[in-house]
Structures are given as C-alpha cells and as structure tokens.
Amino acid sequence: MKSKWTPFLFIGPAVLLLIIFSFVPILIAFGISFTDTNLIGLANWSKINVIAFDNYADLFSDKKFLESIGNTIFYVIIGVPLAVGSSFMIAFFLNLIGSWLASTFRVIYYVPSVTNIVAIAVVWGFLYNQEYGLFNYLLSLVDIDKVPWLEDPLVAKLSLILLAVWKSNGVSMLIFLAALQAIPRVYYEAADIDGANRWQKLIKITIPSMSFATFFVTVTTLIGWLQFFEEPFVMTDGGPLNGTNSIALFIYQEGFQYNEFGYGAAASFILFAIIIVATLVQFKFRKSDQTL
Amino acid sequence: MTVGGLLVSLPFIWMVLSSFKTEREVLSIPPTLFPQDPTIEHYVHLFQNLNFDVYLINTLIIVACSMIGLFLNTMAGYGFGKFQFKGKEAWFIVVLLTMMLPGQVTMIPTYLLLNEMGLTNTMSGIILPGLIAAFNIFLIRQFMVTIPDDLIEAARLDGAGEFYIFTRIIIPLSMPILAVQVILTFIGAWNSFLWPLIVANDEALYTLSVGLALLQDQNVTNYGLQMAGSTFMVLPILIIFTIFQKYIIEGFNVSGIK
Amino acid sequence: MLTTKKLMLALMFGFILFVAACSDDSTTEGGSSDENTITVWTMSKALKDFVPQYEEEAGVNVDVQVIPWDNAHDKLLTAVASGEGPDVLQIGTTWVAEFAEASTFLDLTEYLDDYDNLADDNFYESAIGTTKYKEQTIGIPWYVDTRALFYRTDILADVGYPEGPATWDEMINASRQLAARGDEQYAIDLPTTDPQFPFILAWEQGWNYEIGNGADNFQSKGFKEAIELHHLFYEEELSQTGEGKEFFQAFSDGSKPMFISGPWDIGMIKERAPDIEGKWDVRLMPSAENNKSMMGGAHLSIFHNSEKVDKSLDFINWMADPETQVEWYKANSELPANLSAWEDPALADDEMVSTFGEQLKSTQPLPLIPEYERLGQEILTSLEEINRGGADIDQALEEFQTKAAEILDR
After folding, report:
1. In Å, how far are A169, B41, B224 from B48, measured between CA atoms?
2. A140–B contact, CB cutoff 8 A
3. How many residue contacts between B and C have a Cβ separation below 8 Å?
4. C407 Cβ partners below 8 Å, 6+ apart?
5. What SUPFAM superfamilies does the annotation carry (chain A) (predicted)?
6. What is this structure's pTM?
7. What are the tens digits of pLDDT across the range A134-171?
8. Residues of C numbered 219-248 whose beta carbons fall under 8 angstroms of chain B's beta carbons: which are they?
9. Does C245 contact A at CB distance below 8 Å?
C-alpha cells in the first residue's frame, strides 16, 4: 500500500492551499518591498517604481524603526522565557492535583486567552492607572511609592510583558497538558521502584520526555513575541515616547496608517529575517539534543 | 493557587459582570465588581440590532469548514512527522515560513489573488485563506514523535491501508492534541472577523464578530455593549472548551487498538 | 472507537456544508449587477433604516453595506487596489486627500448644476473646502462636525468666568486658578491623541497651512506659539500628563472642569453624568487671533468606475436636501452640512447644538494633503517629547521641521 507517493497524499492538500493563499502572497509582498508602492501605486500599478534597496537603506536610518527593533528584542528576551516557563509550571501543577479541581483550574487559566481585548485593555488599564489603579493602591499599603506602570518607557515595556504573559499562558498550557499525557506511565512506575523522588522524576523523566512539546512552544512563542503587536496597540499605541513600539506595530503604522506599503513590506522582511535566524538557531539546538 | 486563579480570571469576571452594568458604571473609578444597578439593556440592544440568523449561519459555516481544514492540517502533520521522503525538509520550511510574516503584510496581496480567482464576495473567499495554518501542522508534527513507529509498521504488515491507519490508529492516539487543535480552530473560526469584512461586498456574508463591530459608534465606545457582545461570543467557546478538555487529559486509549 | 466515528461524522457533515457553501457562491454576487440597484458603503449603521423612504420615492433599490469605522480604511484600500468598489461611498474628511490622490472618486464638478441640492453655496464654506481636491469635486458634504469647549458653569463661575473663557488669555488665567484648587485638581483635558488638535491651536494663532509652502509652513511664528501654548498646560500641570481618571467622571466631580470635544459629547454627558445637569454648557472655542476650530464630518462620493452615476447622484442629491438633512440629524444626531437645515426648530431651538452651528461658521478645513495624518502624528510625537520627555521647544521644532520636509518630499 505504501508507495513513494503516500506522504504527498497526506501533505499535498494542506501544502497546496498554504502555497496559494500564504506563500504566494509572501512572495508578492517581497516584491513590493523593493518598490515605492503607496496608495496611488495600489490604485494604478503603472505608477509603481522599483527602487531596489532604498526602503531597506532608509529603514536602517529611521530612528523610530531602530527603536522598535530594540524594544522588540527587549520583549523577546524577557517575555519568551517567562511565558514558556510559567505555562509549563501551570500545566505541571494542574497535572498533579485532583481531577475535578484541575478541570476547574484549566478553565480559569485558559480564560484570559479568550477574554475580549477591549475588556483586557479596560481592566488592565485600571490596574495600571498611576493615580487610581489597584496595583499602586496595594503598593501604597506597604508604603511603596507610585509606580508609573504605563507612563515610563522602561516600566511600560515590563508592564506590557506581564500582561502578554498572562494572556498567552492558556494556549501553551493546553499544549503542555496534552504533552504530559503522552509520557508513558511505565517510566514513572519504573522510577518509583528505583525510589526516585518527585524532583528527580521531574528532571529525569518529565522534562526530557516533553522536549518535543517544549520545542514547539518555544519556537511558536518566540515567533509570537517577535511579532508582538496587540498589547502595545491597545494599551499604549507605542508610547510613551515610542518606548513600547514594536516592529509589528511599526509595520502596521507605516503600511496601514500612512499607506507606505513598500516601506512597511520592507520592514516586515527585516522582521522575517530576524525570525528565520531565531528559528534556525533553535532547530540547530534541537539537533544536538539527543533526547528527541 | 486559588488566589492566583482568581487574579488570573479577574478581567474575565469583570467582563461578564460589566455586561450587566449601566454605561456609567462600567468605567467608574474605583471600579465596582458587582453591578450596583443590574441591567440587561445591553443584551436587549444586542438581540434587537443584530441580524442574528444570517450572521450565525455564516459563522457556523466557517466553523464547519475550519474543521475540514483541521483534518487537512492533521494529515499534513502526520505526513511530515511519520514519513521519510524527498524534499521533506524543504517543504516543511515552506510551511514554517508562512508563520513568520505578520498577517497584515499579506492582506492586500491575498485579496488581489482572491480577486483574480473571482473569489471576492464569496464564502469560499472568506474561508480559504485561513483554512490551513502552519501552527497546526507544526503542532501535530511535533506530537507524532509520541506515537511508536512499530504500531504503524505492525498495521501495515497486517495489510491495513494508509488512510485506514491514519483514521483508525493515528487519530485516536492523537486525541489529546487533537482536542487542543479543535478548541483553537473553533475559536479562530468562531471569531472570524477580518476576511469576512474585507472579502464581502454584501452584508449577507458578515459574521457575528463583524455584526458586533457594527454596533460601535465612531466617537464613543459603548463599553457595556461591547462587554455584553464579548460575553455572548465567549459562551460557545467555553462550552466547546469544557467538552474537549476532557480528551486532553484522557490520554492514550491503547486498548482500543487491535 | 465511538469517538472516531463521531469525529468522522462531524467531518462528513462539515464537508457537506463546505460544498454547499461553495456552490452557494452564485447567489451572493454583488447587488450591483441589478440595473435598478445602487450600492452604498457607509460607516453609519442608521443609514440602513433611513433609505427605504428614498427607495419608495425614487423607485430605486439602495443596497447599504455598513462597515465598522475601525476597519473602513482597510476595506477601502482593498477596494482601491482591486477596483471593486460600491457606487456611492461615505468618506471622512480626513481621508479625502489620500484617497483622492489615488483617483478613488469620480469628479463631480460638471454635475453640480444639474441637481437642486448640490451647489456649493448650500453648504458650510469649509465643508466645501474639503470636497475640492486639485480642482476636482470629490464628493458632496453629508454631515459636519467640529470641536468646541465644554465647561462646568458652576466651577468656572467660581473663578470669575461664568460664561467660560472667551480668549486663550482668559483660559490661562482661569486654568491657573482651577489647578490651584489642590492636588489632583486640573483645569482642562486637552485632546492628546487627536492629530487635529495642534492644527486648531495653530490656526487660532493666525497660522495657516499653505499647500505650496510645504515644510516651511512650520517655520512661522504662529505655529511655534501654538506649541508653546500647548506646553504651558502641561508644564504648569493645568492638564494631566498621565491617564488619570475616567473622562466623564473627572468632568462630573469637577477635577477636570473643561474639555474640548465634538457634538456627540452633549448626549454623552447627559447620559453618563446626569447629576451635573444644568451645571455645564458648551461655548465657542477661546480665541487668540481668531477662534477657528476644525471642519470634520463626512462626504458622499461616487466610486471612480461606477456605472450608475445618474442614479447615484440622484441619491446623493436626496441626502443633501435640507429636509433629509434634518431627518438625518433627528435619526442619528449628526449635524447637517446644509446651511438651511439649521433653520429647522429641531436644531435652532437647541442651544448647545446651535453653539456648534455657530462654531462651524468659524472653521478651517484640514490641510488637504495626503501626508496630513502623518504630519499630525509627528506633531503629536514632538509635543510628547516636549511635554513628557522634557525636550527643548526650539530643538524639537527644528527636528519636526526636518521630519516634515522629509515626509512632504517623499
């Protein structure tokens, strides 16, 4: 039954659709990034000029863009380990506790990822409000000064990271939970016989057996954080003083607020390149990891 | 953990409770948790002003089609995870690359492609661009490592067809991760917003999310109404979640395989 | 294996629906194929229930498609890119230049005399100003809006201005007294995210944007005075820099007894702050050289390749009729662009609304250049650097001028 065509029957339909509706548009966008396409060009293609690498050259002298790269790197370095770590911990503990309780908590921890973004912006906006917010009120009880949660460029970045980790935990948690189920029980039984304690079991069995899921969550989380967009978009619109602007938000502003599609596309391919490099590095790491 | 749980779900609880507050109360500082003067006016407004029948049917069609997409994604994930073939790495890289560009950048090219194919203002035009997701293919592929190769080989020796192996062995064994996929796919499709709006030149193709967005005013955000809309939209998601989360932790049902 | 069976069944069911959905395509073709139907894109949901009257009178079907405001720009972009648009579309005044530059609209100049209600002198002068782009008429004013000063009569009376400050000098004087009332007491909430506001301040200093002068416009004295005036409110903490309290709450508890906003907030205050009824009012913008505010609102335009120009014009003509304009105001509280509609008691007898009508006569159209939004955002960025980042005004202005030159040259 199995012929050399079999795998293509499985991947064919999906890959074909993906090429038409995702890959070809990427190629078109790549072409656009070498032109001066704006709204006028979009309406009348004869007015589009090919300007080679001008967009890319301009980007690297655009202060706002460079700042957004810096901010994005900051988000990734702090956010990714935090997001992967905390969702793993939540999944791990949920897996330990009793079943009816766990199913309640699964819902609870999942709920942030389905909460409407406007509700999130309103509630977190209140929590972070410098004058009247809950966080500063609680801090005032223990005599700590008001923290400018969203009013200071550096603190605002951290505040947005906290918010994003809170929001993203749900999905990664589900993936980790599913992965925990895939660990054969016999491993733990064998370890029990050897008299291993909980900690040893976590280090020796759970974490290595889940590396396939951890790898997935890390790669997708990294990609997600490099494309960090929604939180600064609804909470700060890139401010204060451009301190929370991300590359993806920059692309949105150039491409859709100011209609500079060529420029925006060029920025997105710089982001694309960063993401590819970051992902490749991870694939390299995984190759050396013999547990998979 | 209980405290943590409460804190984590606070915005959600606030969202639900606020949908019963008057517009005045929603944003007041300090905020109230429980509505002081409960009202269902937002829900009344919602049901009176939304073309529910049309929008709901469109949304359900999109959800149903997205499940086909999920099936295709699962097939592809299995193909990448359990077969060795020529060009496998290259094809997989193509799949991964589609995840790496922010969606907004490809919006206009995708629209122009759909237009060339004559698919604008059609249901297919709304559904096709989002049918396949690299995220899902990648996720399934990663989970395929947990299925022992011996199992598949044994079935082949027994003379089982490839598609039979896939539907009768692989899918049941992948239940936990498929449950995750069903939840995520459902949410994505249920909330479809941008494509229905961009592709449709007729409100007959709008979805519930688009309908809700129409209720918003240009200058004034009606928060109570928005919370009521989100609460309404989130209910089916929670129902699907509670049904399918059982499968996530049910784990291997090896006894079912001969 | 029950679950697999269920799953397969679900998939089968889904597949059938999928096929059904695809084969259903033919029935959802755009309404424009019908000879007697015009399609209209609008962001005003109320238009749907408003057109049946016209449909009856004219015997034409009007197919209204409502688009959410937040996504209307995206939707227009794809329409422009593919050339697949409606017959009639609503266009906000701030989007006129960018889309007109891309030849989105049909030039209506030669048709203006053929219809009763389309002549320029029916409308507010600056509303007409935003319909003329490079000697073309890109649309007909539908409704207008502007900004005026909302203030608490009781609190302003305490500092000697029961009628509200009439000039910016009075405003500064009143504001200092108001801010001196104590901690967490401010004078006014200036719009921080509205790119139009810096322009309003500059116009009032006698400045105007001359299209031919490009970035040199921003070198003039009036523009700098506007920036300094703006800075004064933050430097002396007359306005709050941070997020602070919710808008209406701050207005009703008196901690921010003034703000500058549009006509929609009349209804909003009545609804959200009923306990201060009778203690607030609207007045014309304070003046410096003049008291010009901005001209906003929306026009009705015809998409460049519409095949039903006559029917579309007839519909727009009906929408521009004074009577229809009054009806539209009653239905959706949006202010008539047509001058004679303002004589109707529904508007004339409402004092606050009439104040806006008065302010509308002293308005200035925004610079009708495609780069307007970007320039506005850059000014806001510079203001943020001055007010929040402590940048020197002269230096920030100089940087802005360089930036503006770059933007306008591109």
Report:
1. 36, 10, 15
2. no
3. 126
4. C371, C374, C375, C378
5. MetI-like (SSF161098)
6. 0.89
7. 888 888 888 888 888 888 889 999 999 999 999 888 88
8. 245-246, 248
9. yes
